[in-house]
């Protein structure tokens, strides 16, 4: 838990710094005035939609484990999935691989077998959001080049993960490296599972679930704009949110903090024509309802996992987080 605590403190510190800059950029007085006018009655609806989005993504997680023929009791699996949300503040959300460590403890499934499920989640998060971005771009009559670029990056990443030649090359490289050589035997299992999850059918199913789940979150984000009285159409807000979220992932900054905020506030100003104060307020509300709410849900999930799997197992997970290869060395 200590490592997660340090990471959370660093993320919060980074967030505070970013939001201070945001307040200055947005004119603190205008920002405060915009926030004061927010319709608080919408908060339960917004957080409810975001929670339903997580439920959809949990269904995708169950689907991936079913494809891999890994069985975990439903209640335990729900807690594991929720705990993974605590890693929303990790670079590209890839820290959610800790779910694989929990799954190993709950079912005995090797980490190398289930870690590709986390990678597949990130891949279909990307394809699902790109689809929403395309809808927004076409509705606003904007050039689709930026979404095509994101789609090309996603396609390239999937191709790399499925490439047997690259897997064999990586295995040969790792065998020659001290300390990392013990990872080599696990690459075959990782590549095999990646091929299963990123095949045509699982990719289509995962993307469809992602599209629907992210649609719920997009609706929640739109209601954030409604709550502030911003005059912006649904698909305009969706386009801005999609582009900013994808930029945050590609930045590999923990939680996309800074990159996402910059994308949101600048686009709300330029594309939607919002004042700096309103754009800053909307950016802050969106991030509270998505990034920080997810982190809170994740921390609650960790408490459940602590109760279900035991204190010692949770502690060992966080000691291994951030150095996943050490977990593999212990024989996953």
Automatic annotation (TrEMBL):
InterPro entries reported for this sequence: L-PG_synthase/AglD
Segments traversing the membrane: 7-28, 34-55, 67-89, 142-161, 203-225, 232-257, 277-305
Any single Gene Ontology cellular-component annotation: plasma membrane
Location(s) in or outside the cell: Cell membrane
Main location per the UniProt record: membrane
Signal peptide: none
A family per Pfam: LPG_synthase_TM
Mode of membrane association: Multi-pass membrane protein
Key words of the record: Cell membrane, Membrane, Transmembrane, Transmembrane helix
UniProt name for this protein: Flippase-like domain-containing protein
Native species: Rubrobacter tropicus
